[in-house]
Specification:
Radius of gyration: 19 Å
Shape: globular
Helix content: over 70%
Oligomer: single chain
Number of strands: 0
Distance between the termini: 41 Å
Largest sheet: none
Structural class: mainly alpha
Order of helices and strands: HHHHHHHHHHH
Length: 218
């Protein structure tokens, strides 16, 4: 297999898995017609997108409940950049695409993390593929499909651990700074996705990972 094909194969396999695993969402007109998606995220994303399309920040909507403060509610994900790119789609399609993209991103992050920790010298890692498929198709992401902000936040977890590992393992100052900036950016994006509990648990996970690294290198 050519070098470029080995580099592209993990992303292609994980993308194919995502489409097949979520095929009712990917290849049909079905929507998530229950739970938080139906009662909260569809109407709030629609109000937020309408504000974006009108060219202003979504501060307030009089159309939900007895009025709702959109900008003050982090769960709406107003400051999460991927949501800006999806704001021009119909809301059901924006949420559909957001789920698929973030499940794929989660799987790719798990692959990259496993490969870095276990198969760093290999251009292609079957163990990494297994890790990516397990995380992308596991119960945590699947169970939270109705809470898109949690799926978005969780998709950044393996990337946070990966960037933190680079901070810990950095041999040169510029490598540590670069990894630190990537870690800060990923954590900021996770926070902007709108589920602070996910970020709290992710920081705890980083703390445990860091403690394990320190004990290993004593």
């Amino acid at each position: 297999m050519a070098a470029w094909a080995r580099r592209a194969a993990p992303a292609l396999l994980l993308a194919l898995f995502t489409l097949l695993f979520w095929q009712p969402l990917a290849f049909s007109s079905d929507i998530l017609a229950r739970g938080d998606t139906y009662n909260f995220f569809y109407p709030f994303w629609d109000a937020r997108s309408a504000a974006f399309q009108a060219g202003h920040l979504p501060l307030w909507t009089p159309d939900l409940f007895m009025g709702a403060p959109l900008l003050a509610d982090p769960q709406v994900g107003t400051f999460y950049p991927p949501n800006w790119l999806l704001a021009w789609l119909p809301t059901v399609d924006a949420l559909r695409l957001a789920i698929l993209l973030h499940v794929f991103w989660a799987g790719l992050g798990a692959y990259a993390l496993f490969r870095r920790l276990h198969d760093a010298s290999a251009a292609f890692s079957w163990g990494g593929i297994a890790a990516g498929l397990t995380f992308a198709g596991g119960g945590v992401l699947s169970a939270h499909a109705e809470q898109i902000n949690q799926v978005q936040g969780l998709s950044w977890l393996p990337w946070l651990v990966l960037f933190f590992w680079h901070v810990l393992e950095g041999k040169q100052g510029r490598d540590v700074v670069r990894a630190g900036l990537l870690l800060a950016a990923a954590l900021a994006l996770q926070l902007f996705s709108g589920h602070t509990q996910t970020s709290f648990m992710s920081v705890c996970a980083l703390g445990l990972f860091g403690a394990g690294w320190v004990l290993r290198h004593r």
